[in-house]
Amino acid sequence: MASPVRSRLSLAMERTGKWVFSKDIPTDVVVVVCEASFSLHKFMLLAKSNYIRKLIFESKEPDLPRIDLSGIPGGPEIFVKAAKFCYGVNFEITVQNVAALRCAAEYLQMTDMYCDNNLAGRTEDFFAQVALSSLSGAITVLKSCEDLLPLAEDVKIVQRCVDAISLKACNEANFPSRAPPNWWTEELSILDIEFIGRILSGMRKRGAKALALASALITYTERNLRDLVRDHSGRCTESSISDDSGMYARERELLQSIVSLLPSEKAALPINFLCCLLRTAIFVKASNSCKNELEKRISVILEHVTVDDLLVMSFTYNGEKLYDLDSIRRIISGFMEKEKNMAVFSGGDFKETCSAAMHRVAKTVDSYLGEIATYPELTISKFNGIATLVWKGARKVNDDLYRAIDIYLKAHPNLDEIEREKVCSVMDPLKLSYEARLHASQNKRLPVQVVLHTLYYDQLKLRSGADDQPDAAATSQLQSDVSLVRENEALRSELTKMKLYISDMQKNKGSSAKSISAAAAATSGPRKHTFFSSMSKTLGKLNPFKHGSKDTTHIDDNIAVDITKPRRRRFSIS
């Protein structure tokens, strides 16, 4: 690291020595600047520098053979140029060194008040006439001021650069002078974020549009956070990213500053860029205020989000693990709250009247659930938590949600019946299309209740020829029948258990013959009402096909019924 610096310093010392020692006057002072030393003449220096003159005349040492100027702005390189100016040797002033020379002149008090046509005046002329005349020149000068603070602020170099850049960038944004039109955003992206904030504020005061300010921030972010911000396809711009978020302290501060500068207009920033910023904020563990601001901005324009945008915020950079989905839930909740307020303001029922934006968001959320359903980190509560955020009225059909549920059940095969019912509870089977109902009726992964819903609905359609949605009476009848079926199933299960229990007791008795004779005696006598006959009567009352083709309750017990076993028939196509 020190080798290039030392070589430059020795080269500067060698050049300085040539024009110093060419005069046959011995040097009388050694000027030390950091690690470099220069043998110079006092009378040449104090003729231009009031600071050096004070050091020499106010020193307690009579000759003062050594002067330390390590605090000079710009270091040894700039001091060499200042010394050349004192000796009357020509040197070049450029946009790269003019700010440092102006600050060095201020530090050494080489102003026109001390001496006419001094270094400060020379640098001021170049700064005003050359550096500030072009956007690129002003940006280069401002960039060089980053290492010259706070002195560059004191001599007004920074503010003058900011004003010039704001004016010229605003003109370029409104009336581009060359292609591409946003070339000026690339120029700005080399600056420090603090300078960017001041420039954008100046542009806003001069009437720059929000889209121009957003374009500058997007270019700046893509250049300075290129290792973290994804491209529009959701992929990372770098092939490898460390999972240690503690390594990104600088990036975290930079991201928080960028978010604080975002224009307030909701349509100024593309949704995918906001999603990328939120993804980066989650990864680098940005402040809650930073993440909340991004979540709020995304929720306002959520109807424009795509499934890929939501996936960008959900996964780690390698795409192998789900992040915490709290941000996704807050974004959807914020959108729903906005829709609710708009519906209430317009005097409608927000659960009955759904906007087109609401329908788009519902479809996007359901498709998103289908994409993340295969990941083991997605628990039932998280899956249902996201699905239930969307009002049921916002889903015209539940096909996308059914697809997500089916994928989830397939990816989690160890769920029991109750857990599968919990997963399916977010779906309305009556809102499935014919194709989806047909698939659901044959889907062995679905709970029995969901299959019954779909089958019964199809039966209602065949009988009544009604529209795709059943009326309230049909829905009520369906719920009643499903309840009866469940009770019937429970009673049959209890009956089976009781039979098994009695069977075990009979096997444990000593004599099976006694049991047989006792059973025969019991059957030979008059018929009595037993537990099983009572149970059968109860089960018969729970017949879900009451008043249907298989209803037998209207048949009189005294009428003879042919109970002979029907002849088996072969069904074949010949």
The ordered string of helix (H) and strand (E) elements is HEEHHEHHHHHHHHHHHHHHHHHHHHHHH
Portion of residues in beta strands equals: under 5%
Find the structural class using helix and strand composition.
mainly alpha
> Largest sheet at a glance?
3 strands, mixed
The radius of gyration over CA amounts to: 42 Å
* Average of the residue pLDDT scores: 79
- Indicate the overall shape: elongated
Q: Low-confidence stretches at least 5 residues in length (pLDDT < 50)?
A: 231-240, 466-470, 518-524, 541-574
Q: Helicity, in percent?
A: 55-70%
Distance between the termini: 94 Å
How many DSSP E strands?
Answer: 3
Describe the structure.
With 574 residues, this protein is mainly alpha-helical. 58% of the residues lie in helices and 2% in strands. It contains 26 helices and three strands. A three-stranded mixed sheet has the order 2-1-3. A hairpin with a 2-residue loop joins strand 1 and strand 2. Helix 23 packs across helix 24 (472-508). It is elongated, with a radius of gyration of 42 Å. The chain starts with a helix and ends in a 33-residue tail after the last helix. Residues 231-240, 466-470, 518-524 and 541-574 have low confidence and may be disordered.
Defining traits:
three-stranded mixed beta sheet, 574 residues, mainly alpha, single chain
Topology:
Layout: H1 2-21, E1 29-33, E2 36-40, H2 42-46, H3 50-57, E3 66-68, H4 75-87, H5 98-107, H6 119-129, H7 135-144, H8 151-154, H9 157-174, H10 183-188, H11 193-205, H12 210-224, H13 249-260, H14 271-283, H15 288-300, H16 307-314, H17 326-345, H18 356-372, H19 380-387, H20 399-411, H21 417-424, H22 434-441, H23 448-464, H24 472-508, H25 512-524, H26 531-541
Family: Belongs to the NPH3 family.
Domain BTB: 27-95
Protein name: Phototropic-responsive NPH3 family protein
